[in-house]
Amino acid sequence: MVTKKRIIIRPKNTSDAWDDYSWETDPELAELDAAPVIRMPYTQYLLDYDVEVRRISPTSRQFSVDTLDGEHIGNCSYYNLDESKCEVELGIMIGNRDYWNRGYGTETVITLVNHIFGDLKVNRIHLKTLESNRRAQKCFQKCGFIVCGQLDKFAYQFLRMEIYRDQWHEQLTETEE
């Protein structure tokens, strides 16, 4: 568990299922995540969810994002860890709209990047975000990610963004001065 100014990032558990289900069945959130809207009943979702949160993967970790008072407001993760290339992919979603445009996404990204560079032997973190998702792009740029390309996949157009360990440490040093 990692605690920052306004958020806690913790491992996911089955108590998060209802929030995740409501977010994954929301057409706007699914579109922002370039994912299909979940159409299965909650009872089936919960069975699958329980299996997923118990699964341990050497190449990924899923976390919940909570406020300091324990409200589950979103999720973040790293995945596609490639130890030979020393890189990993990052993902984030603030699903609770009450927390949009208030800096929670930025704080979550900064916290997750600190965790990744602190705990994993990676030199590069990359991500993809929809070209149309300006809010996410602004957040990632504020956190030091730079655009490194484009990607067309499943009828979606993505921007690819990245940050390197040495850039991150330079950014932290400049922030502390």
Written account of the structure:
This protein is of the alpha+beta class and 177 residues long. Strands 1-2-3-4-5-6-8-7 form an 8-stranded mixed sheet. The chain is globular, with a radius of gyration of 16 Å. The two termini are 28 Å apart. The chain is built from 6 helices and 8 strands; from the N terminus they run E-E-H-H-H-E-E-E-H-E-H-E-E-H.
Concise synopsis of the structure shown:
The protein is built from six helices and eight strands.
- State Rg: 16 Å
Mean pLDDT level: 92
End-to-end CA span = 28 Å
Please give the share of residues in helix: 25-40%
Low-confidence stretches: none
Describe how the helices and strands are arranged:
Blueprint: E1 2-3, E2 7-11, H1 17-24, H2 27-32, H3 42-54, E3 61-67, E4 72-82, E5 87-94, H4 104-119, E6 124-130, H5 134-142, E7 146-153, E8 156-164, H6 165-176
Parallel strand pairs: 5-6
Antiparallel strand pairs: 1-2, 2-3, 3-4, 4-5, 6-8, 7-8
